[in-house]
Amino acid sequence: MLYLKCTAKLLLILSCLFTGCSTQKKEDGEPPTIQIPVTSFYTGNPNITTSPLGGICMMGGRTENDNAMRWFLNRAQGGDVLVMRASGSDGYNDYFYSELGVNINSVETLVFNALTEDASIIDKINQAEAIWFAGGDQGNYVAYWKDNAIEDALQSAIDRNVVIGGTSAGMAILGDYVWTGDAIVTDFLDVPYLHNTLTDTHFSERNRMDRLQDFIGQTGAKGIAADEYTAICVDETGLARVFGTDGEGDNAFFITPELQIETVTGSANGNNSFNLANW
Do the bridges between strand 272-275 and strand 239-243 make them parallel or antiparallel, or are there none, so unpaired? Predict the structure, then answer.
């Protein structure tokens, strides 16, 4: 019990040193509530610089597809991977760093509990060769990262050719149009080959075709959607390979503004594909 208490205090101290803490005064006799904007979990070596290959990895939720994740990590060229999320913990650290057999230098997970534009956070984004957005609530991602220095740093990372990706809510923020859970917003991230698109996840499992078609009707955008356990990996030429479990019907959907639907079934090796460059 003493070890657990000390560990918790150490994590709190490190988090405060990393991003700064604020306190809210409570009634007399009650201790103040400490708010930590960001908690960091780090695995690996000090930062290095490599030349990433760029690309996008979009996953429809639930368990990650290992081969798609290997594709994502390999495009970091042995560099540093940054995981950004607004809930959860360090579940990606060991998975990315040591369980997939891909050589990378480090994995750092930042868990955002509030909006912050701390310079140390910006530095982490600027030093990454790969950025992964975990699942959660895309409304929080928009609230914490849009129209501020975080968005500017993320866009700069995309522009310098980092590989970027996300699952569930993390995929939902990659298109030009983002459904926050309350409204459709624009002018967040500008990702190559995702111009004038709206992305959707958990697609067949939650019967979201009608919803996505309604969003397309409202915006005039194209739609890209993925079933659970399904990944869409887009390389620098715009070729979108679809990964899934063979024989399980893990599908990706590409829908035009005229509501023409192209369905691509995922495979273990991502052999089936769709060309976003001439879509």
Answer: antiparallel
Compute the half-sphere exposure of residue 104: CA atoms within 13 Å on the CB side of its CA: 32
Residue type, 160: R
Place of tokens 């080959």: 193
DSSP 3-state assignment of 32?
coil
Sequence-distant (≥ 6) Cβ neighbours of residue 29 within 8 angstroms: none
Q: What residue ranges define each of the domains in the chain, with the CATH number in brackets?
A: 37-43+51-275 (3.40.50.880)
Residue 177 is classified by DSSP as B
Question: Looking at this protein, which amino acid is placed at residue 254?
Answer: F
Please tell me the pTM assigned to this model: 0.89
Give the whole-angstrom CA distance, residue 160 versus residue 39: 26
Per-residue pLDDT of 18-47, as tens digits, reads 445 543 443 444 544 445 799 999 999 999
Helix, strand or coil for residue 110?
A: strand
CA-to-CA dists, residue 225 to 13, 25, 32, 76, 222, angstroms = 41, 45, 45, 25, 10
Q: Which two tokens stand for residue 245?
A: 């479990």
- For 134-162, b/e burial (b = at least 16 CB within 10 A) is bbbbbbbbbebbbeeebbebbeebbeebb
pLDDT tens digit string along 137-177? 999 999 999 999 999 999 999 999 999 999 999 999 999 99
Maximum pairwise Cα distance, the chain? 66
* In the chain, beta strands by DSSP E: 22-24, 33-35, 38-44, 56-59, 80-85, 106-112, 130-133, 163-167, 178-179, 184-185, 197-200, 222-226, 231-234, 239-243, 251-255, 261-265, 272-275
